[in-house]
Amino acid sequence: MNISLRTLTPKDPEAVLHQAALLLVEGFRDMAPEFCPDLPSAREELAEGLKAERICRGAFDGGGLLLGWVGGIPQYEGRTFELHPIVVRREFWGQGVGSLLVKDLEEQAAQRGGCVVFLGTDDEMDKTSLSRVDLFHNTWEHIKRIKNYRRHPYEFYQKQGYAIVGVLPDANGPGKPDIFMAKRIRPEPVKGDEKP
After folding, report:
1. The model scores a pTM over 0.85
2. How far apart are CA 71 and CA 59, in angstroms?
3. What gap in Å lies between CA 192 and CA 183, rounded to an integer?
4. Pairing with 133, which of 9, 14, 34, 63 sits 20 to 30 Å away (CA)?
5. DSSP string for the chain
6. Is the pLDDT of residue 1 over 80?
7. How far apart are CA 27 and CA 23, in angstroms?
8. Is the torsion defined by CA of 2, 7, 8, 9 positive or negative?
9. Which among 143, 123, 121, 122 has a CA at the least distance from the CA of 131?
10. What is the rounded (10 degree) CA torsion for 110, 151, 28, 50?
11. Count of Cβ atoms closer than 10 Å to residue 171 Cβ
């Protein structure tokens, strides 16, 4: 499949912006139903993502169909970027579109001086063993033994080189955590990490 990647802007044709918003509604329906439940909220989210200081990249097929898009929000004075959101048309899941978007976002963030990309991947729908658990107790034991029950995306991010770096228990209500993941995109030695 011929895929091209490019920056999305507010000046894109209305058809492209509509596709991008619709992908948010459809893509998060089964993962985080309160995030962009309708087109007006998706258009607001898209408008935020298209701001000049952010990264917003789309993947298109040879015919101009938007296959998916990813956003990046600069944090910590631009040293880190939050990956938010990422969405891919369901019929193209498992075909490498998401991986291309993540890699492209990392390259864009590195070009802007970013060292780390991080993300939160909520478990609002009991898709992992971290849901319905008291994560205030034995937190790292639960994380170490995490299991994916129903296609939660944390494993997708692990395949892209991201590590689970923590959780926020009850972020989405009792027993519904946010799973935090991160990846260093510009390897630099950490001072004090040297072996004696």
Report:
1. yes
2. 12
3. 20
4. 34
5. --EEEEE--TTS-HHHHHHHHHHHHHHHTTT-TTSS-SHHHHHHHHHHHTSTTSEEEEEEETTS-EEEEEEEEEEGGGTEEEEEEEEE-GGGTTTTHHHHHHHHHHHHHHHTT--EEEEEEE--SS-BTTTTS-TTSSHHHHHHT--BSS--THHHHHHTT-EEEEEETTBTBTT--EEEEEEESS--PPTT-S--
6. no
7. 6
8. negative
9. 123
10. 10
11. 16
The predicted structure's pLDDT at residue 30: 80
Cβ 149 vs Cβ 131: under 8 Å: no
**Tokens found for residue 28:** 């998060």
Token reading at 182: 């991160």
> What is the percentage of the chain residues whose pLDDT exceeds 70?
96
Model pLDDT, residue 47: 97
